[in-house]
Design goal:
A five-stranded parallel β-sheet has the order 3-2-4-1-5, sandwiched between helices. The N terminus is likely disordered. Helix 6 packs across helix 8 and helix 7 runs antiparallel to helix 8. It contains 14 helices and five strands. The radius of gyration is 30 Å and the shape is elongated. Helix content is 54%, strand content 7%. It is α/β, with parallel strands linked by helices.
Length: 329
């Protein structure tokens, strides 16, 4: 480390150090107005990474950028006499430099320059999804297992992850909920990445996102249009009416996945029948299956999710079994 200059040590005009951070998720050159102002006004602009994506745009704007990685003492020297030095941070955020400045300030022997952290570009909400897409793209290309997966081969994982998400919700575990949401999101991005490789009908995660955005806007005219809805019931009515026009279905049963759990299937059928105002009596057949059907229809009419209710009862039964075994006592 260089010796501290008399001006810096004496406490006169210690100057200013600005650590300028940028996001790689925002196009290079799109910086905030305060960032551009400080860059143009600075006495020196330094960057340790000569390949930093911002440098061509800074130089195009007439800003002289020096490729340098000064130690903390050298940077304090550079600010002597009231000078402003901007350090364009690399992706790692310059931890060695900031740690060095902290140690130097901790000695109490040096009047430190004014230190400022200035974010020059910000991540918008959802920006980390771009990281996920990039990571998934690399894994698909380089991982021996992931590169061989198909939609059909991954289908079972989608079901498993959905069940694990539901369990986390019902257990009320926030950490588990966050993790399981990530696992479900992975399934979406993975399938979308595979879909890009289809020889005749490819689509990408952007197509998937664009499709759901268009659907949400179209089915929420009370938010994005002139329609009004003041109650959840009116919102649902808007949704179902718009969906019916989009799908042009001939039966209320169309679009109901028959592969879902039996109680959920029965409740969904009952919901469609009730919403459509149809009067369809239950089959008058004896048997456990028909008894369960009647219970599911009754639960749906009372606003109860029969699958969730049965899972709650099953968990209580599990706890009773463990108690009888002496487990956890």
């Amino acid at each position: 480390m260089n010796a501290i200059s008399p001006d810096a040590a004496s406490g006169t005009a210690p100057g200013r150090i600005v650590l300028l951070t940028t996001s790689h998720r925002v196009a290079p050159g799109l910086l905030s107005w305060p960032a551009w102002r400080i860059l143009h006004a600075a006495d020196r602009v330094l960057c340790a990474d000569g390949a930093h994506p911002q440098l061509p745009y800074l130089r195009e704007a007439g800003i002289s950028v020096e490729e340098a990685s000064p130690a903390a003492g050298e940077l304090v020297d550079a600010c002597a006499g009231g000078r402003t030095v901007v350090v364009v941070a690399t992706g790692e955020g310059e931890p060695a430099l900031t740690d060095g400045l902290a140690r130097l300030a901790g000695t109490g022997r040096v009047r430190m320059p004014e230190l400022e952290l200035l974010p020059a570009s910000y991540d918008l909400p959802g920006a980390r999804l771009l990281d996920l897409v990039q990571v998934m793209d690399r894994i698909r290309a380089e991982c021996p297992w992931s590169s061989r997966q198909t939609h059909r081969g991954l289908a079972k994982y989608g079901i498993e992850e959905a069940y694990e998400l539901v369990e986390a919700i019902e257990e009320g575990d926030r950490d588990e909920l966050r993790e399981e949401l990530g696992d479900v999101l992975l399934q979406v991005v993975f399938h979308a990445r595979i879909a890009e490789e289809h020889p005749e009908e490819p689509f990408s995660v952007d197509d998937v996102a664009g499709g759901i955005v268009a659907k949400l806007i179209h089915r929420h005219p009370h938010v994005f249009g002139d329609a009004t809805a003041t109650t959840p019931e009116e919102v649902k009515e808007h949704w179902l009416r718009t969906k019916a026009v989009e799908k042009r279905r001939t039966s209320v049963t169309e679009g109901i996945p028959l592969g879902q759990p039996g109680l959920a299937l029965a409740a969904k059928l009952a919901s469609r029948v009730r919403t459509a105002g149809l009067d369809v009596p239950l089959p008058r057949v004896e048997g456990i299956g028909y008894d369960l059907l009647a219970l599911a229809v009754r639960a749906e009419a009372e606003g109860v999710d029969p699958e969730a209710a049965l899972r709650a009862a099953a968990r209580a039964y599990r706890d009773a079994v463990r108690a009888a075994e002496g487990v956890g006592e």
